[in-house]
């Protein structure tokens, strides 16, 4: 992972990347499937509030509560995001969206998904 320093360098999202961290959402948040996920956080600001990297997930559904604002560019798969306010959006490879801090609802991974992310907390 790269952190901001006196002489910042470009952060590449391809090539020789670090091994991903593999995990699952907390069991009490999973509502369907087994959404095994992985993340490669490629950048973190010096204060730890801004992060960016690559994330992927197997199919499944889980509850989300966003404390951060996150920009996503979906590279692969299909995701359905449902808000507790009744909103619903389906995203496919090539789509981009932002989830604002305070958003609550569910993420459903319909087809294995991969995204670039950048979030600020």
UniProtKB/TrEMBL annotation:
Q: Entry's Pfam families? A: Cupin_3
SUPFAM superfamilies registered for this protein in UniProt: RmlC-like cupins (SSF51182)
The (S)-ureidoglycine aminohydrolase cupin domain covers which part of the protein?
A: 45-117
Q: Which domain of life is it from?
A: Bacteria
Cited InterPro entries: RmlC-like_jellyroll, RmlC_Cupin_sf, UGlyAH_Cupin_dom
Q: What is this protein called?
A: (S)-ureidoglycine aminohydrolase cupin domain-containing protein
